[in-house]
Amino acid sequence: MRISMNKTLPLLPESASDIAPEIDLLMLAETAFSIFFTGLIFLVVAYFAIKYRRKSEADTPPHIHGSLMLELAWTFIPFVMILGFFVWGTNVYFRAYSAQPNAMEIFVTGKQWMWKVQHPEGPREINELHVPVGRTLKFTMISEDVLHSYYIPAFRMKKDVLPGRYTYFWITPTKVGSYHLFCAEYCGTQHSGMIGTVHVMEQSEYEKWVSGGDESMTARGEQLFSQYGCVTCHLADGKGRGPSLVGVYNSMVKLQSGVVVKADESYFRESILNPRAKIVEKYQAVMPTFQGQISEEGLLQIIAYIKSLEKEEEGGTPQQ
Amino acid sequence: MSATHEATPPTSELNYLNNGWTWQSWLLTGDHKRIAMLYVISITVFFALGGLFAGAVRLELITPQGDMMDAETYNKMFTMHGVIMVFFFLIPSVPATIGNFLIPIMVGARDLAFPKINLLSWYLYVIGGFCGLYAAAVGGVDTGWTFYTPYSSTYSNSAVIATAMGAFVAGFSSILTGLNFIVTIHKMRAPGMTWGRLPLFVWAHYATSLIQLLGTPVIAITLVLLMLERAFRIGFFDPALGGDPVLFQHLFWFYSHPAVYIMILPGMGVISEIITCFSKKHVFGYHFVAGSSLAIAILGFFVWGHHMFTAGQSTYAGMVFSLITFAVAVPSAVKIFNWTATMYKGSVSYETPMLYAMGFIGLFTIGGVTGVMLATMAIDLHLHDTYFVVAHFHYVMVGGMVMAYMGGMHFWWPKMTGRMYPEHWAKLSAGLVFIGFNLTFFPQFIVGYLGMPRRYHAYPEEFQVFQVLSTAGASVLGVGYLLPLIYFTWSIFKGEKAPPNPYNAKGLEWTVPSPPPTENFRIMPVVNEEVYAYAEQHEEKALV
Amino acid sequence: MEHHVSSTRLYFGIFATLMVCTFLTVFVRMNLGIKSIGIALSIAVVKATLVILYFMHVKYSHVLTKLAVWIAVVFLGILLVMLSMDYASRDWQYHEPGWEKQGVLKN
Amino acid sequence: MSEHAAIAHHHHSEEHVAHQFDNALQQYESGNLGMWLFLLTEVMFFGGMFGAYTIYRAWYPEAFEIASSATNIPLGAFNTVVLIVSSLTMALAVQSAQLGKTKRLVWNIILTMVFGTAFLVVKYFEYSEKIGHHHFPGSSFVWETPAPREVQILFCLYFAMTGMHALHMIVGLGIMTWLLVNAIKGVYGPKYYNPVEVSGLYWHFVDIVWIFLFPMLYLI
């Protein structure tokens, strides 16, 4: 497998995502700013060093205390200039880490020392990632052991992958090719072996690839849902001992304590592993914990299934 | 110009070095100058050790396959390099050696306020150092100097507790040094030594000491919690125990970011002294240079989250941290502008300390502007945990602090030992250090932007050319650091005898003999002239 | 050395106040059964202030000592506030646009 | 520097003034400031744990409420009283030294030590009670009712915070012993009471830490 390289400008990595050109532009602007200031300092120091070199031991330099105007100038002018970079950089960052609508989902599980990926349609892969060009992707990531960081230099994107908690990022690949995938957060002995390849494919090719015939995540999740007996209490009509899960994803749930929380991936994960942490209003704390019984990948499958329950109900009358 | 000159005793008289030759007179001394020399020796040992580990890392990285040592050994090499250089070299470097030696003399006192506590700091440092050496001897530690949980507390199979204990104990050494400095600067200034007359070296150490007092205890308790979690599974940070690994990062960086300023502020103090002396001019904007030290120390406590932009920290918190990080760049820039302006219309000579100081200005500027890049959240998305970060902090720590330390050692070597160093060799080594340093670390900016993560034992082939350049530079740098070790040692025995004030510099330390007597002053000084009064010196000369 | 010497009466007065405060905080919790972070910590702050001002003589001390106390309070505050800032706002950015309009689901 | 250079004024003749100081006042002020700076670091040392407590309390409010009801409020309250009494006797010890009442100084130091020891003894019983109930975190931890992991975090904080506090008490008792020996020798008086005062500052600080730990770990 050949990694795509930037041939026109070998000092820049390949640029293959929607935010990559923006980050490159920002970097270019800051580099220009930096070269200007560093160059200025270098030149002035060199000029003073030569012009005012000591000619004799009896040199008598004038006594200059300083200048308030100069101090104010070189305090505030650089500050205002870098404030511009702050606003610009923060803007791009917020877009990169904020939720985007209609994203295609990718589920990543990191463990010492491999990256496992699940696609909702079914395919699973290790240390590789196949994605279509031009689609917005939502990465939902979790670690089974220590800290990792999912880093694709060609996308100019990384995010730490933590144990016990989902982290996310959104990105749109813009260029077909194969790119490096690295673990950027030190994770132990084979840290430098926790690498792989990201394949950005044409939409049509991706569809061919993804229809490999594997069972979908939703289907696997549904199996787990009945295997662990979830289905016996979480009845779809809401008459079970546990609340119905149909259409719950992304909605607001009122808890016994009166607090209203958002039912996102983290909420479901917590409710499976630590059911008593958040009890839904009008229900009893009777659910046992599944801590240590379901793998992180299995949890993602169950959550994918719960999320799919909403989609199936779209158009129909919601069951309450 | 000074009455103390007339009272200068003949060199045959006792000074702090020849006042007692027994082991006890050194190991149980309360004299800040002797303790400073003990520190010089011990941090040199650790610098050499840390340098050896760095050498191993650089050799391994010549080839991309990772074929010189196995991954575990490599991980231990960079961890030990980081731990030793940060906790046992950079943090004590200037404050515990040059600072310890000079602060009482500069403010006009006989010693630090608490000589026994000063000695205790050195012993704590040595005990901490032995903990670190013990960890290395029983197989090393492989967590990275940042000790991130849960790897350090649960998964690593190396000597984490011994190393953390070393850093913990050395931390108390640092706290006590800072405490001693603040009390000395507040309470023991000579008559007439007002706050506005304090040398900028003292101001910088005052700011440093504040950070040592307020930041170090937080990492101390964090390391204690880490050790408890590792030893007894008392959970604080491991998610398997209900904890949050990001909390460890918060508490760790609450100290470790300000600690970066512990490492650089004293260096800035050194540079202020050198530039004014070799330009024969009052420091431009004295009050702003002094104030910027305090500004850096205080603002430095508000920026730690910029190490965690990609760590799963809230983006909104990150925004606040980013903004203040931009702000903290300003006082550093103010210093650089003022140093440059100090040379304006001066009488600039190029002795070795000045070469180091000019090198510092250049390298620290590069370190600073790349820091502004990393403070930009969007750029940090790409650059965090890559070689770009490695290059950036080496430009600040090595290009900044080590250059300043070397400059300071050359500048005050005649004062500390009473001997001159060989000027030509020193200039050669300053040049080698500057060239070797840039060759080592500049390629890392590029390989970092290309996307090579740090702490990689093996790496894709396309990065090799930069790593080879870097290793080549490191060997030049190594020679640059070996030379001073040799000629400094030589000069102690064979060097030319140094006069009290070889550079015609200003400041109380240049009014006492070289080396100074045990209690620094034969006659306690009274200060009645402004700081850095180089112009007055000439007027006086003209009158005579 | 002219230093302030507090009277024995003052010491016992402060001591009595501290005792009353301790009684109050326990009474609120055990007898009234109120678990209130606000009440308990406010009483603790009052007690700590009394100890600092009178037992530790800060009220009669050099301005430098007063400054040291304030620095301790301020920097502890920086640690706690900036730390909480992250935890309080962690999940804000993960909400997809328009999610809040979906309303509360009644199970 | 000056034509009017000062004459060296070593007050070696002045009793108890160390060689690096000009006079007793400078030594007194230095010692005092030094202790206050040390307490500054102590605040930040405990501050790290207070930070962890704040976060986990916000994360697991229910678990913390359940767990804090397992702490023994009467014993905690008793210890609070004991520590406040010891702070009073410590303050009186400083006052006695200032006034030169050596006998009263000795007795107040002894009382401070007695109350300090009483605190530790009560703490010992509290610890053994908790360990007996398997509430010590780690492999032996048992918690029957919900959310054991989250409850355990509070006990981790409980043992870390009170343990660190108890360690400070033990150090304090060591300092008191040293003070007592010197006080019996009659070292301290109106001219030289700085060691008593700075030790008192330390003792009061440890008291203040407990003033916060008590509500945080027992009451809320």
Describe the structure.
The complex is a heterotetramer of chains A (320), B (544), C (107) and D (220). With 544 residues, chain B is mainly alpha-helical. Chain B has helices at residues 3-6, 23-27, 32-60, 71-90, 93-107, 115-137, 151-155, 160-187, 200-232, 245-279, 286-299, 315-343, 352-375, 377-383, 387-417, 423-449, 464-494, 534-543. Chain B has a domain at 25-263 and 417-538: Cytochrome C Oxidase, Chain A, CATH 1.20.210.10. Chain B has 18 helices and no strands. The N and C termini of chain B lie close together (11 Å). Chain C is mainly α and 107 residues long. Chain C has 2 domains: 1-56; 61-90. Chain D has 6 helices and no strands. The radius of gyration of chain D is 22 Å and the shape is elongated. Mean pLDDT of chain D is 88; it is low at 1-13. The chains are: A alpha+beta (320), B mainly alpha (544), C mainly alpha (107), D mainly alpha (220). Strand 11 of chain A pairs parallel with strand 1 of chain C.
Oligomer: heterotetramer
- Could you state the order of secondary-structure elements of chain D as H and E? HHHHHH
Count of helical stretches of chain C: 3
Percent strand of chain D equals under 5%
**Which class do the helix and strand fractions of chain C yield?**
mainly alpha
Strand content of chain C: under 5%
Net shape of chain D: elongated
The CATH homologous superfamily of chain D corresponds to Cytochrome c oxidase, subunit III, four-helix bundle
Q: Span between N and C termini of chain C? A: 75 Å
| Overall tally of domains of chain D | 1
Low-confidence stretches of chain C: 97-107
Rg of chain D, alpha carbons: 22 Å
**Share of helical residues of chain C:** 55-70%
Helix content of chain D: over 70%
Distance between the termini of chain D: 63 Å
CATH class of chain D: Mainly Alpha
Helices and strands in order, then pairings?
The complex is a heterotetramer of chains A (320), B (544), C (107) and D (220).
Chain A: H1 20-51, H2 68-97, E1 104-111, E2 114-118, E3 124-126, E4 128-132, E5 137-143, E6 148-152, E7 157-161, E8 167-171, E9 177-183, E10 196-201, H3 203-210, H4 217-227, H5 230-233, E11 252-254, E12 260-262, H6 265-273, H7 296-313
Parallel strand pairs in A: 1-5, 4-10
Antiparallel strand pairs in A: 1-2, 2-3, 5-8, 6-7, 6-9, 9-10, 11-12
Chain B: H1 3-6, H2 23-27, H3 32-60, H4 71-90, H5 93-107, H6 115-137, H7 151-155, H8 160-187, H9 200-232, H10 245-279, H11 286-299, H12 315-343, H13 352-375, H14 377-383, H15 387-417, H16 423-449, H17 464-494, H18 534-543
Chain D: H1 24-59, H2 61-68, H3 73-99, H4 102-132, H5 148-185, H6 194-219
Short description:
The complex is a heterotetramer of chains A (320), B (544), C (107) and D (220). Chain B is mostly helical and 544 residues long. Helices cover 68% and strands 0% of the residues of chain B.
